[in-house]
């Protein structure tokens, strides 16, 4: 089992680097990493493009988390909702993160409520947006360059989520177990948690680390990992 609908590809050097990075950072290989082992260079470039787009927005890591969780929850992507719900909880608190996931948005600033609403509109129906939506973003303090940056970032996140969801990537049991209760309970949609992942952990540790690990300067930015 690979944690998705696809079989795992033969382990290339590039895929091995991704696996080793997961093990060093989190102690297990994420299902989404196993899926993207089919095109390791593509996921690195995609993460870099996401980071490049977001940097131009000038927003904070907390606001990054709000954008991702608002968009992922609207799309129905349980994997990124759980992963980024946990990150947002760490950057703020668990009730706030759960509120963004459910659409309640309690605890957000006025500007954060506007950008969360925009992320949801982009995810739900980009052809339904209006000049009034753009003006709301301007009124909350964003200039047109920032609005473009935020929209590009959200669209790239949605592309990443769409690939993962379409190919059946399941949230890892280890991820779900590490999250605050409020975040877990807020995610009632999307692919179910892969309870078999924990059972595979020892096999992963054996097969992935048998050749040893090195440092990898090209590591995907941790803040973008799903």
Total DSSP helices: 12
Number of structurally distinct domains:
1
Task: Estimate percent helicity.
Answer: 55-70%
CATH superfamily: AhpD-like
Biggest pleated-sheet summary: none
β-sheet strand percentage: under 5%
Q: Note poorly predicted spans.
A: 208-221
**Overall mean pLDDT score?**
91
Briefly note the structural class of the backbone.
mainly alpha
Counting copies of identical and different chains, the oligomeric state is: single chain
Q: Termini distance?
A: 20 Å
What's the CATH C level?
A: Mainly Alpha
Broad shape: globular
What is the CA-based Rg, rounded? 18 Å
Account of the 3D structure:
- The chain has one domain: AhpD-like (Up-down Bundle).
- The longest helix has 23 residues.
- It has 226 residues and is mostly helical.
- About 6% of the residues have low confidence.
- The protein is 65% helix and 0% strand.
- It starts with 12 loop residues before the first helix and ends in a 17-residue tail after the last helix.
- α4 packs antiparallel against α5, α4 runs parallel beside α7 and α7 packs across α9.
- It contains twelve helices and no strands.
